[in-house]
Amino acid sequence: MEKLDFINEFGGLINTTKTYKKEPMSIEQMFQQSINNQRTKPIGKDGSWFKNGTVTPKVGVYKLFENKDSDCGFSITEDQKDYFIDKIEETFKSGSFTEELELIRVKHQKMLEERQKNKENKS
């Protein structure tokens, strides 16, 4: 029996892989997801905001607070972790981080444009 006969005998090949294209997250969705992830991340582990006695809130890979001279974080104890996360989420939901999130939106858009440009140059 030839391979083609075998395939045809059983109705031919069908695509069994489903692909889904996710809509990109907004900066606000990225920040909320980052906050949610911090609730379960152990202190000091990869992806944790909490390292070496300081906490640096992030939106994805972008630091929420930066100034022109350095990155900015907070000095807190491990006992304050849950309270800190609750307060940052409360402050975020009240709309108090709009300026910081807009700066991140600009950085993120620039990165996406550079990625697209590099992709086009490779093809």
Overview of the structural elements:
The structure is a single chain. The chain has 123 residues and is mainly alpha-helical. The chain has one domain (23-122). 46% of the residues lie in helices and 8% in strands. It is built from four helices and five strands, in the order H-H-E-E-E-E-E-H-H. It has helices spanning 3-9, 27-38, 81-93, 98-122, and strands spanning 50-51, 54-55, 58-59, 62-63, 74-75. The strands form two sheets. A three-stranded antiparallel sheet has the order 1-2-5, with no helix packed on it. A two-stranded antiparallel sheet has the order 3-4. The longest helix is centred in the last third of the chain and has 25 residues, at 98-122. The two termini are 42 Å apart.
Radius of gyration: 22 Å
Count the domains: 1
| Backbone shape | elongated
Q: Provide the helix percentage.
A: 40-55%
According to DSSP, the number of beta strands is: 5
The topology string of helices and strands comes to: HHEEEEEHH
**Could you tell me the strand content as a percent range?**
5-15%
- The overall pLDDT, averaged over residues, is 89
The low-confidence parts are none
Distance between the termini: 42 Å
